[in-house]
User: What shape does this take?
Amino acid sequence: GCEQLAAMPDVIGDIVGLKQQPSGIRVGQMRVPIGVFGMIYESRPNVTIEAASLSIKSGNACILRGGSEAIESNKALAALVRQALESAGLPRDAVQLVPNTDRAAVGHLIAMPDYVDVIIPRGGKGLIERISADAKVPVIKHLDGNCHTYVDDPCDVELAVRVTDNAKTQKYSPCNATESLLVARGVADAFLPRIGAVFAAKGVQMRCDDEALQILKEKAAPALDQQARAAIKTEALLMPAQESDWYEEYLAPIISIKVVAGVDEAIAHINRYSSHHTDAILTTDHVHAQRFLREVDSASVMVNASTRFADGFEYGLGAEIGISTDKFHARGPVGIEGLTSLKWVVMGEGEVRG
Assistant: This one.
């Protein structure tokens, strides 16, 4: 990720959209650093390097506060970053690490708008909710990753099975894993038994509406081995969905499944229940794909691809500071450009306003 970032062009100082106005002035926007961002994160020490490298590349300074699980690793990595800054002739303090895990330090960091321009929490829902509630500094955040995959009519069933399997089971814990599966009624009989067999073989519990439940019980069970068939019959792997399941981010081998009439109902369901993180359509209908892209109100919207691609590295950002489901400024995976702002610039040759 660092090597990919280093090879990317610098964006600071770029002027975009420069246009001549009737008055003679030329008006555009220049990309500039935000300033200082505070990064509050849990567990994974790779975030120390991702945050530091993105901060340096975007011309910002950052204050990092990792969790107790990896404090020693974070200290070691931050020391290497500071050495690298110094060797490059840059200020060592451009990247700072809070050296203790006292929760009071977080309270101070998120309440200093004179010193910190934005806070980025990266961790569980509890951490992000607490930061968002208490912060006196703007926060770039996402709370949930209730991602949807919608299997359209028409679709390539082979592609749909392969992509849906990857979107759910490649890794259960990330926020971009699919948590809810919508299937168009016209392809449900062909698609659901096949994906049901895949999920059952991997021990994924399916929480279904009545229509999906009936199809899976009648047509998926015969294709399973005896143990999986028994699990389905005892509701260990197949059970009715509750209303709360449509909102749920499981982060586990569990998926909600619903049969819908078509693309209209799929879009309506997603916009109601989705956390606006990442949602995908699997289809061979170009018009349906374009409608889905335009009308689904999420930070990332995909056609014929796994939701697991919603990631800064996979998007070519080099690394990501996090994923934002806010609608203002940064949205989706936040890389270099998400850590910058735009200011208006005006180029003149002595023009005055009449």
Summary: The first helix runs from residue 2 to 7. The first strand starts at residue 15 and ends at 20. The chain has a mean pLDDT of 92.
